[in-house]
Amino acid sequence: MKIRFLATALLCAAMCAPASAATAPVPAAVTAIVHRVMTAANTANPAGLSGLYAADAGVVDENAPYYWTGTNAGRAWLTVVDNLLAKMKATHFKAVSVAPTEYQAAAGSAYLIVPVVISGNAGKKSIRETGLMTLTLRKTHGTWQITSQIWTTT
Fold this sequence. Notes:
Blueprint: H1 2-16, H2 28-42, E1 53-60, E2 67-69, H3 73-87, E3 90-97, E4 102-106, E5 109-122, E6 125-140, E7 143-153
Parallel strand pairs: 1-7
Antiparallel strand pairs: 1-2, 3-5, 4-5, 5-6, 6-7
């Protein structure tokens, strides 16, 4: 009876515990990719994204046309964002990433979720947006490349 009670209690505790992602340490090479994306965004430098995206990469964002593909997907996406910010007369634009909330890797592929806070001004109005940048990456010939990049506003 005591064993059955203990087993039931342990099962209930396991089922009722909050779920947490199995997050592995993020390698420096992957962190460097996130840093390059943030730096390119903060300096309005689409060329800073060159070489980061795989040939079959896809980028998804809330700005039309919403989806870009190929090795220049990142550059095309950031060009659209920069043009939008220019139309808004945005100033003091800054995108800041914080520590990834999830990182998993297996067999040369990786999955990464990075919270990002975007801020700045559009005329006299303050802009602040929080979201998640979700990346998948593939390691080819010892180099990580982005295979997908998805922005989700939170």
